[in-house]
Specification:
The protein has 363 residues and is α+β, with helices and mostly antiparallel strands. The chain contains five helices and 23 strands. A hairpin with a 2-residue loop joins strand 1 and strand 2.
């Protein structure tokens, strides 16, 4: 059977998510430890499985194995699964020394809108050009109407990460919240359980993932009363406050929507004014090295400024574009706090590098 694992970075752990178009049971092996995906003792026999693994355990092993059995039937006294199938995955250890002792490179993609093949092509060219340590999915990858859509979403993640052997980071976009099955997407992606906002540390690189949810008010008729993003954002505000109080370094923040810029917040999309003012103030106190986003479908860069819908004391990079082409970005974080950026499209065209200087914090 075909399975599509992906290894996500969440907190200081990996979340290994495995999906298939077939229902199945699954066990994970990392080093000498066996992980079984069960619900209070009953093996999960759905189309998706998730395992939490310490980063140190998988990094030390350098590989993981999945043993699966296809679900056939299950009754009170008659249960049958298929034969065991084992799959081995060797992780690509692209980071020899932790950041910031050595540079750290991500490949960022967003606003794919189901153009999976083009996005994969752009990523292949990017990974051939640079030693990528983390693939960042910045949202609006595709709308999730059915379980089949969710598994296709996982297959895309799997293919983008060299068959589940290169770590990934997932930052939800507003289109990822749409569709009749979107409320289940958390099970198929790398989130902090049901929370799509979290901090993470990977190989010394520290990040913050934020999620604005939808881009229009909950009361908008297109949602039919089915959204509660205002309450979601209130909960997220408390989380951002906790991040500030922790004093944790944030090398980069990731948020699909640039809620601090007019390019995203205009007309019917200029929502949650008071709440986003609060977010902006908190984020300025956290002072991330950069904000990397998508949403506007147009590559753009802004220096720290007080002359926008909200002031920000960090550079903002909209790192993805969609037109006739899919464009993503290679971003290398250097030990001196600068970022070197190159944009890559699905034809393999790569722009010359430009440098984003470490912010002076005068804003």
């Amino acid at each position: 059977m075909n399975i599509y694992p992906c290894v996500y970075v969440v907190g200081d752990e990996y979340r290994i998510v495995v999906a298939s178009h077939d229902a199945f049971i699954c066990t994970l092996e990392v080093g000498s430890k066996i992980y079984k995906d069960h619900n209070s003792g009953i093996m999960n026999s759905s189309d998706v499985h998730s395992f939490r693994v310490k980063q140190s355990a998988l990094d030390r092993s350098g590989k993981y194995s999945l043993t699966v059995r296809k679900f056939i039937r299950k009754f009170a006294y008659d249960t049958e699964f298929g034969n065991e199938e084992r799959y081995d995955f060797n992780m690509q250890q692209t980071v020899k020394r932790n950041f910031p002792a050595k540079p750290f490179t991500i490949y960022y993609t967003a606003d794919v809108h189901d153009a999976y093949d083009k996005a994969i092509s752009a990523a292949e060219f990017a990974k051939a050009a640079e030693n990528v340590s983390l693939v960042v999915f910045g949202g609006d990858l595709g709308e999730i109407q059915t379980p089949e859509n969710a598994v296709d979403f996982c297959r895309f993640m799997h293919d983008m990460t060299n068959g589940g052997t290169l770590p990934a980071l997932y930052c939800r976009g507003n289109h990822d919240t749409r569709g009749g099955y979107a409320q289940e997407l958390w099970r198929y992606s790398g989130t902090d359980d049901k929370k799509s906002y979290f901090t993470f540390t990977y190989k010394g690189f520290c990040g913050l993932v934020l999620d604005c949810g939808e881009d229009k008010p909950d009361t908008h008729p297109v949602y039919g009363g089915g959204n509660a993003f205002h309450e979601f954002r209130l909960e997220e505000s408390k989380f951002i406050e906790r991040v500030l109080k922790s004093g944790k370094r944030v090398d980069s923040a990731f948020c699909h929507i640039t809620f601090m810029q007019r390019s995203s917040m205009n007309g019917e999309f200029d929502i949650e004014t008071r709440l986003y003012d609060e977010w902006a103030n908190l984020l300025n106190e956290i002072a991330p090295g950069i904000m990397i986003s998508g949403h506007t479908h147009k590559i753009a860069f802004a220096e720290p400024t007080t002359d926008d819908i909200r002031p920000y004391n960090y550079p903002v990079l909209v790192a993805a574009e969609i037109n006739d082409r899919i464009v993503g970005s290679l971003v290398t974080f250097t030990p001196d706090g600068n970022k070197i950026v190159r944009h890559v499209n699905d034809l393999g065209e790569i722009t010359p590098p430009f440098t984003i200087r470490k912010p002076s914090r005068n804003t």
